[in-house]
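User: Could you go from structure to sequence for me? I need the amino acid at each position, not a summary. Structure tokens:
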């Protein structure tokens, strides 16, 4: 067993880990980045990028099929499943390759391959080949898809996002367990590509929406896109020919494949965290400060999906940078920094899109609500996408705190609102800005006007 010393050990070469490693090196620390798998990041290999490639192919198919609404006759739209998936993998491989290219400038001796496990508060073992002593460590181990109990033992019939992008052809039918961002995006894409899709979720929401008005709108919109079973848990699954038969209260049915999209628990088990002295909660996750990323007064930091706080890409990247820099500072005997958090911004790339800013709707907070609907919004009607709505939340007095929205291209509106919230704008100040005509942004102007009127 090789014995090595370093200042900072970073576990996991995903988005958070790469950012942490770079930040620690930039701060002058001897940093080591450890990766157990093929690398290339979850985002590029099995997450953001392949899912968006599938979604975009599905949007093109949908647009072609619905061109009639514009007086355009498009005949015979046929989905060539193997070709869709081949293009997806070709571009996905490019994105993964560009992640590796981005690592080329890092010193080779600063990277280790293997599974890291803590042996003590300052020691890691990497497989059986290396013992690494560190002054500070960053846990950036990401998260993994969960598979609900009734689906275990069904083998390859059950897909997760780790495997769904590898299938050679689209199935005829697919049951999707989970109506969160992953489930909703992939269910709609598959349905638009001609797969018979059924979605099951024990909850009553879609895509993380909380606002009751918007949740209702989402239910209506998506139940016309696929077979939707909210408030429904799958009780049993058994092999059925090449496929699976699922049973739920009040029903059962055969499916070619099942996609488990029932959440992504953080990868903290089997890491040896018990040996570090960190306080662990009942799920084995260490307590940490969401500004410095430090795990209490230990030498550990945790960033990205591993801390399950905000499992989205831009947060993984920023948290990684903060953790890496702070780990380098701690290793050098300096104090850690606690930068202000960014406002929470999350979206779902369904059609219509869903977005939430500042944590979204909070029934307890007594916020003022400004409303706009896309159903009669000019630009949305031009696009034949007049569905959904926008809700802005503000403190009494007008300071904006967040928003939820479901509607056409709301990714752009959500950014505007997020920046306004982070800049501490009130509704009147935000409204005293240009809103071009005819744009979707005019819905924001309408919601701000409504908010100002309600707030007096
Ligand atoms: C289908 C899907 C679509 C998504 N779409 C979006 C989107 O559109 N926008 C968005 O913002 N977010 C999206 N996300 C979320 C986003 O991908 C994640 O938040 C982000 O990739 C997390 O990065 P990370 O660095 O925390 O983890 P990862 O990139 O998973 O990196 C963790 C790394 O740690 C390694 N590792 C784990 N344990 C060990 C160990 N013991 N030793 C050594 N190495 C170890 C793993 O092999 C892995 O390489 C999506 C996720 C999925 C699944
Ligand atoms: N567009 C994006 O930015 C994007 C896209 C995909 C994922 N992500 C990120 O990845 C994270 C994980 O997404 P996710 O959708 O996998 O998880 P999630 O935790 O957000 O949603 C999981 C859903 O599965 C349901 N569920 C739980 N147990 C179930 C069961 N036994 N059967 C059926 N349904 C069950 C839950 O009620 C919930 O609705 C998200 O929080 C998000 O941050 C982001």
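Assistant: Here is the amino acid at each position, in order:
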């Amino acid at each position: 067993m090789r014995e090595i010393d370093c200042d900072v050990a970073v576990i996991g070469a995903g988005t958070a880990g790469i950012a942490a490693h770079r930040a620690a090196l930039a701060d002058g620390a001897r940093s080591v980045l450890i990766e157990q798998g093929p690398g290339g990041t979850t985002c590029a290999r099995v997450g953001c990028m392949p899912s968006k490639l599938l979604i975009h192919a599905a949007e093109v198919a949908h647009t072609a099929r619905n061109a009639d609404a514009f007086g355009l006759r498009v005949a015979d739209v046929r989905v060539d499943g193997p070709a869709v998936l081949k293009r997806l993998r070709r571009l996905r491989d490019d994105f993964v390759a560009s992640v590796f290219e981005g690592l080329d400038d890092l010193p080779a001796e600063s990277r280790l391959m293997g599974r890291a496990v803590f042996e003590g508060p300052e020691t890691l073992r990497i497989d059986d080949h290396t013992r690494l002593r560190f002054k500070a460590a960053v846990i950036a181990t990401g998260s993994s898809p969960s598979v609900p109990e009734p689906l275990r033992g069904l083998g390859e019939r059950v897909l997760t996002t780790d495997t769904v992008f590898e299938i050679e052809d689209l199935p005829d039918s697919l049951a999707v367990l989970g109506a969160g961002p992953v489930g909703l995006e992939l269910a709609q894409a598959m349905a638009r590509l001609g797969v018979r899709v059924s979605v099951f979720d024990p909850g009553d929401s879609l895509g993380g929406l909380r606002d009751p008005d918007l949740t209702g709108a989402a239910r209506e919109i998506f139940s016309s896109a696929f077979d939707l079973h909210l408030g429904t848990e799958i009780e049993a699954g058994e092999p059925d020919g090449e496929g699976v038969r699922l049973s739920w209260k009040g029903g059962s049915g055969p499916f070619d494949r099942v996609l488990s999209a029932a959440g992504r628990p953080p990868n903290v088990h089997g890491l040896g965290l018990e040996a570090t002295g960190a306080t662990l909660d009942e799920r084995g996750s260490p307590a940490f400060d969401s500004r410095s990323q430090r795990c209490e007064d230990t030498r550990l930091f945790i960033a990205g999906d591993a801390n399950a706080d905000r499992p989205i890409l831009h947060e993984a990247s920023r948290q990684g940078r903060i953790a890496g820099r702070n780990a380098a500072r701690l290793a050098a005997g300096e104090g850690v920094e606690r930068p202000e958090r960014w406002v929470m911004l999350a979206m779902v790339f369904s059609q219509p899109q869903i977005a939430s800013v500042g944590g979204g709707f909070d029934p307890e907070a007594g916020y003022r609500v400004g409303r706009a609907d896309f159903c009669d919004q000019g630009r949305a009607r031009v696009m034949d996408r007049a569905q959904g709505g926008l809700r802005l939340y503000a403190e009494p007095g007008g300071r904006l705190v967040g928003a939820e929205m479901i509607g056409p291209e709301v990714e752009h509106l959500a950014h505007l609102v997020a920046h306004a919230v982070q800049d501490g704008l009130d509704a009147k100040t935000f409204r005293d800005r240009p809103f071009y005509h005819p744009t979707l942004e005019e819905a924001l102007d309408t919601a701000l006007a409504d908010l100002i009127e309600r707030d007096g």
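One structural detail worth keeping in mind: The first helix runs from residue 15 to 26.
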